[in-house]
Every structure is written in structure tokens, then in C-alpha cells.
Amino acid sequence: MAPPVTVNTINPKVIECEYAVRGEIVILAQKLQDEIKIKLEAHPFEEILYCNIGNPQSLGQQPITFFREVLALCDHPPLLDKSETQGLFSKDSIQRARKILDQIPGRATGAYSHSQGIKGLRDTIAAGIEARDGFPADPNDIFLTDGASPAVHMMMQLLIRSEKDGILCPIPQYPLYSASIALHGGTLVPYYLDEATGWGLEVSDLKKQLEAAKSKGIDVRALVVINPGNPTGQVLAEENQKEIVKFCKEEGLVLLADEVYQENVYVRKKKFHSFKKVSRSMGYDEKDIHLVSFQSVSKGYYGECGKRGGYMEITGFGADVREHIYKLASVNLCSNISGQILASLVMSPPKAGDESYESYISERDGILSSLARRAKTLEDAFNKLEGVTCNKAEGAMYLFPRINLPEKAIKAAGEAKTAPDAFYCRRLLTETGIVFVPGSGFRQVPGTWHFRCTILPQEEKIPAVVTRLTDFHKRFMNEFRD
Ligand SMILES: Cc1ncc(COP(=O)(O)O)c(C=O)c1O
């Protein structure tokens, strides 16, 4: 009898879905790492340098002390009654933990919460958004989630009815979007970021792609904007954001604003502006635009990816639709409580005068300034490589250099039945231990090749990345020179 489940009988949408940041190259990297553990000389390098995923703490970034103090106290409230705690924990972390515990029904982090998230924490987040934007935020608009990913899935589930429903997504894009659209059976409608203008977003291209999709019978429902960008690292100018907001209003599109890198801006001339602030400053309110903003505890200077915390702020949707969003959240009961607490902390960190304030500022600025230096060093190194050009990482955690591969390398990749940029990344990994993600995993203008490199290896490891990459690149180009 045939097995009850085979790849021919599973949901074809699962087969169609791809997730490059944890794809083939990364699986190979893990295998090489296991081999090195058993035998150090197994490969021509002693360690794998993971530059493939935005997972800061896996590469040694330290969590913010204040956040962890509050979490620890909330998770084990008896600590609050011990005299030693006063000496071990900062005063403001003790106060904050008491306040948060008072907001949690039953004072228990092991209990389910309201499906939208603990109300007191949503109040704190709303106040944080208000302080950031200068416009009011309503705690009832906030849904706490296990990171931004489930929030994105929830919105796709809500919006996509069939393959006739389209979602406009930037290309290159973060693969969560293509994967989620594929899983929910919709159509990804691409718009291209312009590499020549530092990954600029042209509203004229949005219009062109929207019209093209409509002419194929696609009902385009939403526009995804990732700002600061992943994998491209650009920070949108406010004027550009205004054009995008206007476009969504005029075309009746939901604006899905992925703002998880809001704290990761490295250039003085650019600033993060939330789409909510931009739309409100244009005089648009709830009636004018449906807007969802995603935020996460995984990014910024906090980098708490494994804690799985985040929220979405939903504005403009009618009460009846919101009831259904609430129902969707209820199907998962609630997001995890540590993640909820962290989401409130990142939107309300220590203030001037609090005992932790100075250590918090020094930890935060230390991380962000180091990320900025790493981004610049890697950008300069990429731009020195033959046939490689790399835009500035204005924000986020990545560089996305373009590589002009020799014809012979493209042919060799074809013979190996792999994309040319995947061929390059595979060779880079097996010869140097450096893990990049091929640009094909993020989609790119056809005929162009890229790779994505995170700026997350610790600063002292960056020179090793640069030297190994530079030597490898020379060898590779010499081998395949036309
Ligand atoms: C642009 C973007 N959005 C969303 C996410 C999802 O993050 P999380 O689910 O950890 O919040 C990521 C993760 O790398 C990302 O880069």
C-alpha cells in the first residue's frame, strides 16, 4: 500500500513555498560545521562565518541588560521579595517588573493572555508609538504577536481569497513575503527597487506593475513596503513615503508597512519615519487609508529573535473586519508572554533619570555604532572586488552587492544545475566557510546576480571575512575569466 503521505500528496502550496535564508547553502554550512567539530582539518577553515541571517545574538550580540532584568523578575516574581535582589537588579527594572506583573491577570507569565495581548502592555506600546510619531495611537489597534512573521501571515490570510488576489511586493524582497503569499495561495505582484538610485522606490513603477496585474485579472489588495529595507538596506526619504501613501489611498490598497528595522539607521542624512506618522502628517486619517505597521523585538539594537515578540498596529479597518482579525488571533490563543513583555520594553525603554538609563544608552549606542562601522567596512570591501558593486547600507542589517559573473562561471553554474549566484555562494562556503545567501532567494531583476551578507559577525571577525572573501574572489575570477 502507498504511504498515506508523499510529496505528491501534500499541499502543493507547501511545495511552492521557498525560504532562502534557511535554504540549501545554510543546510550545507551546518553539515560542514558538524564535520569540523569531528575533525578540525576536514575543511580549509576552522569555523563557519554565518553572514546569512539577521539573528544578532547567535553571533555574539549581547542583550540589553535592563530588558533581561525585567524579564527575569517577571518570570520569577519571588525574586522581588528577596533582599539580595535590590543589590543585583537596577531599581527601575524592579519597578517596571512590579508594574508589568500588576498588569498581567493572575500575575503569571505562564498563563494565556487576551488574544490581542495583555492590555497594560498594549497601553505602553501605544504610548511608545505616540511618543515616536507625535500622533495618537490606540491600544485596541495593537495585536501582540510571536514576532512580525505570524502577523504578516495573519494579514495574508485575511487578504488573500484566491490566486486572483495580488500583493505588491518589492523585488528584491524578504522571502517571508513570497513564502506567505504562496502558502495562502495568492499572487505576488512584483515591483522593482532601482539599484542604480540606491534601491529607490519609484511610484511610476508601482503604477506600471499595478496596471499590468489588473490587466491580467488580478485584484491587487495590498502593497508591502519594507523600510528600512531587507535585503537592500535603504531608508526611504519622507517625500517618497508620502507618494507611496497617496498611491495606496488613490488605488484603495492596504499599506503593509514592515518597520521592523526602525531603530537600524546608520546614516545621518536619513531618519526613520513610520508610515502612520507620514500619513497622519498628510492629513489622512482612518477613513483615508488602511494601514498595518509591523514591529518586532528581533531587530533594532535589541536583537531578541528567539524571544519571539512583536506587534502589528492596524488602523483604518472597520469594526466588523477587526472582529475577524481578533478571531484569527484567538485561533492561536495568544502570543508568548515574554515576547509580549519585551515588545512593551522596546517601545518604552529607560528614560533620563532612571537608574538604568546610562547603561542602556551606552549598550544601545555601542551596538548601533558598531553595526554602522561593520556596514561601512564590508561595503568598502565589496566595492573593491572585481565586477562587484555595492550600495550603501543606510539601515537594516544587510548588504546586497551585485556581482557581474564571467560567462564561464554562468555556464559552469548551468552545468551544475544551479543559479549562478548560488554557484558562487556555494564555492565561497566550501572554500572559506563564509555563508552568504544567493540573490536568487530574494528575487532580482532577471539577468542580474547578487548575494546578501549580514553585517552581524562581531566586529573583530570582520577583517577575517574581508580577507577570506577577497582572496576567494580573486581565485574565482581568475578561474572563470572569459
Ligand atoms: C523585513 C523583515 N520582516 C519581518 C521579519 C521577521 O522577523 P520576526 O518574525 O523575527 O519578527 C524579518 C526577519 O528577518 C525581516 O527581515
UniProtKB/TrEMBL annotation:
Protein name as annotated: alanine transaminase
Record keyword NADP present: no
Biological process per Gene Ontology, one example term: L-alanine catabolic process
UniProt similarity note: Belongs to the class-I pyridoxal-phosphate-dependent aminotransferase family. Alanine aminotransferase subfamily.
Gene Ontology MF term list: L-alanine:2-oxoglutarate aminotransferase activity; pyridoxal phosphate binding
Subunit structure: Homodimer.
Pathway(s) the chain acts in: Photosynthesis; C4 acid pathway; Amino-acid degradation; L-alanine degradation via transaminase pathway; pyruvate from L-alanine: step 1/1
Keywords, sorted A to Z: Aminotransferase, Pyridoxal phosphate, Transferase
Enzyme Commission number(s) of this protein: 2.6.1.2
Entry cofactors: pyridoxal 5'-phosphate
Pfam families membership: Aminotran_1_2 (PF00155)
Cross-referenced CDD domains: AAT_like
Domain Aminotransferase class I/classII large: 103-468
The keyword Ribosomal protein is annotated on this UniProt entry: no
InterPro entries, per database record: ALAT1/2-like, Aminotransferase_I/II_large, PyrdxlP-dep_Trfase, PyrdxlP-dep_Trfase_major, PyrdxlP-dep_Trfase_small
